[in-house]
Amino acid sequence: MSEKEAIDCEEGSSSSDRTKKEEALLCSAKLHIEEIRTQKFSIGKNQSFPLTQDLHFAVTNLSKQLYQKDSNFLMELILNADENEYRADVEPTLEFVMTQKDITGTGAPATLLVFNNEVGFSRENMDSICGMGHSTKKDKRQQSLIGERGSGFKSVFLVSSQPHIISNGYCVRFLEEPDQDCGIGYIVPHWVSGEPSLSSILDVYGLCNVLPTTTIVLPLKPEKVEAVRVQLSQLRPEILLFLSKLKQVHVRRCDPEATDDFSRFCKTSGTEQMELYKATSRVVQLSVKQRKGDSEELCKYYLWEEAFPVKPANRVGIRMNVQKWVITLAFPSRERMGKATSSVGIFACLPTEMVTNFPFLIQADFILNASRDCILLDNVWNLGILECIPSLFVDAFQSHSLHSSVDEPFEYLPAQASPIPEFNKVKESIRTRLQSLVIVPCQILEGTLSFVLPQDAVRVLPKFRDLVIGIRAKGNVLSGSSSSLLRKVLHPTLDLEKYNAVLKFLDVKCADDHWYTKCVQGLCNPTEDEMVIADSIISLLECIKFLMSSSLDDPLVRDFIKSIGKSRFLKTLNDYKTPEECVLFDPAWESILNQTDTPTIDVNFYGTEIFQYKNQLRDIGVKVDPLSVCSLLSGILTKLANQPHSCYTPDTTFITRIYSFLNKFHWRPEAPDESQFQVWIPDPPPGGWIMPQQCVLHVNHVRKYLFSSFFWLDELYAEELLPLFSSAFGVAENPSIHHYLKLWETWASSENLQVTLVECCSFWEYVIDNWNPKVEETLRQKLTKLPATKSTAEEIYLINRTEVFLADDLQLKKTFLSYDEAPLFVWFPTSNCLSSVPPRRLYAIYESLGVRKVSKSFVCKPHTILLLEELDKIDAQDGLIGRGLIKLILGFLAGPEVNMPLKERHNAACSLIKLSVYKLERPNQVIYRLMPSASTTVDVKKVKLVTWKKISHRLLIDNSGYRNGKSDPEFVTAFADELAQGLLVQARHYAAALSKLIQWGFMFDFNEKEVDFWLMRENLELPMEDKEFLSAAFLSSTELVRGKRASMETEESGPSTAMPSCKKLRQ
Fold this sequence. Notes:
This is Putative histidine kinase-like ATPase domain-containing protein. By secondary structure, the protein is of the alpha+beta class. The chain has five domains: about 5-235, 2-Layer Sandwich (Heat Shock Protein 90), CATH 3.30.565; about 275-435; about 440-525, no CATH class; about 735-855, no CATH class; about 860-1050, no CATH class. It contains 32 helices and 40 strands. The chain has a 15-stranded mixed sheet that branches. It has a four-stranded antiparallel sheet with strand order 26-28-27-30. Helix 8 (about 380-400) runs parallel beside helix 9, helix 26 packs antiparallel against helix 30 (about 990-1005) and helix 26 packs antiparallel against helix 32.
């Protein structure tokens, strides 16, 4: 609109300098608006419009349903601009200018002005805006959603309540609120004769004195200002990509503080060209300039477009008459522009918000949801379009338009998974189609470019390419087998880490060890051994020397060298062998080893020049160092040992030379395992291989007869070779504990289960001399039988360790010696035996092996039943229990070792004082029992001289013992033991000491003076409480016995408590 037209709109009158055409245009526009208001909305008429309220609600609801997001109004304005008509001499441009000025006088905090250099509004355009569902674009564009609903302009009401339109003489505004005259909002036009003024618009536009033909002024709602600013800042250059007319979009702010807030998007299209009969390809260049003074950022897009017939099953609604889908794929030639960093991949003229993770863009006539942010994935129309994309992509991939370089087409493969399941189906369909096409470029040497199926191509390590080039540079000719493999090596520009996902997508595999080995064999090996000439091998070694000097630590080079080591191409004195089987024989070894003893490389064939490549031969596996030769020789020994003896008889001198070489260079197995090595025993002829455990280096001549089944190597080999057998083969220098145990097992398995005295002494002499924790543990685990003897016989039997006892109590041993059916006690050397087996050491060894002690293993059971009339109570004056005895016992119990509490001491003393003493006229017999095993019981009868019956407070004593008194030491001992063990049931380890103290007191009749002396000698002092207890218990120095019981019951003669472990017994 010209300036004069705007002034007329403001003043409503003609001026002399306005042309007749402009006046006619202005008047026609005003008349048209008046016509719409009068005829369509009945404004100014006396009659009311009957559907006024319904129409307003319909418009309001439609706008709310269609445009649920604020950003929709921008998309609709851009689409409308792209569908507008333009003169041929202009470049279609859309400009958004935002200002904080209220140029409409509506009180808006900010205003958005939209400028478009189209031809301007027509009557049809205005009629469409003033109606519902009457788009002027429906008939012009069947293949897009634009104009489908006829309400695109209504989206501006999302951000503005009073949008203004100034174009071709029209100067109108629309109100969101219902019109006062007709009660309808949104679509009722109001002529504007005041603000905005031409000067205020020019002040905002600011570029020139002539405004674009169409200006839309949107005074923004307060709550929408920030949202509009954000939406404008988020516009991307790619909005232009699939538009048909619009070439530029400008976004800027017209405020002093935002002079740099500026963006300009431009699109330049290349020449369209037909690549296939059904496809069109073109190049579109987008540019963006984000600040004034900045240089433009450019990005080219290759567009590939095809038309597909619409299937009947995919037709829907308004598209029922559409005959074809036009689908376009856009491939960015570089990383998408800084203003297009989002992963949006779906366009319906303008971008949606759908992220596909595909490296290309998809444009089609998709049916969108109401907010235009995503396509409807359950719509058969859209699903039909998606089914066409794999075919379209493959056509574009195979065309030459994408092939600016070998690898560039592969950048567009959809290798990443899509967050949308329907697009993952598209991705898998593309993969399936591509895997059946010969599309993967392969090249390892220049001039050998070829294409293969994805599954036939192989990826190789980068250094392998250098390796092949190096071998080729050294003059090696590639054989047919290696050439066929190398033709399938992936092109180097594609075999990069950044293409890992793409190559995995195509199922391109990496070369494995087998592939490398096969290829290397083709590089290095001729098809026939006879064709291997010396010069070729020297050339190969020279090539290896070059590679190792330049790539010493490269894993691929090492793998390559390893592969060569498995190829049979080196000539030895006998035949051709692999490098790993060969030896570069050092002349210095000839004094020890013959060249024919090993697979020696034929130096006469290759010449002495081959020694210059010692390091390279070592690298491919040839044995050039003494230790590596030792490993090979040890393998030869192992093979010889595993051969059937009937097939081959080894040469002893040959084996001795090998042993000499191994010993000379101190060879040791890398992983010692005695079971894999055997020792050659040449004597007696014809010799044989023996396990190291059956050999020893030396044997004491005294014990040599014991080991007649073993082999003594000091009698078979020279002294200087013996260290080899010990250090490398594990041969014992002398018989070990294992050798002795093997002998012991042999003796134990004999028919009579006996061992001679000399054999037994020899065994235990070795054990004692070599005793240590390891020997102890070995005996615990493996020595199951021990030597044992009967009462009188001198024979030594080997009995199960659990069935014999250790005689720690000689009285008990004497008691059980009457049992002569089987040995019960372990053997000990007598005085006339070898002095090198000390009994005390042997006793300790038996203990450590867990042999049961007889004192802790026997059980005492009563045998004699005593009747009441057989018991004779002793007169109190003749009592054994008096003040001296009690004093002696109290002193011991209060001593520092026992330290029995006061109350327990006095209770113990009272238990003695209350005893009634009875003598027995006939012996009181008990049974002593041992159980060597669960099925064997040994019972022996014995007379018990003293028995303490605690429950009935009686002390029963043998009459003969009582009569003899202290002159009978056995009775004295029995008396002292019974009392001591009865008093110290909970502390039996002190019973022996108390028993000895009581025995001493018995010998002095428990005289108090002697008792006091002995207590002092033993550093025992009677506490004051014990003295007071004694004074109260004994009224005078007379030996009174208290607490005698008057009655007597018939009872068994055995003790009421278990027999203590240290009890001394009488036969």
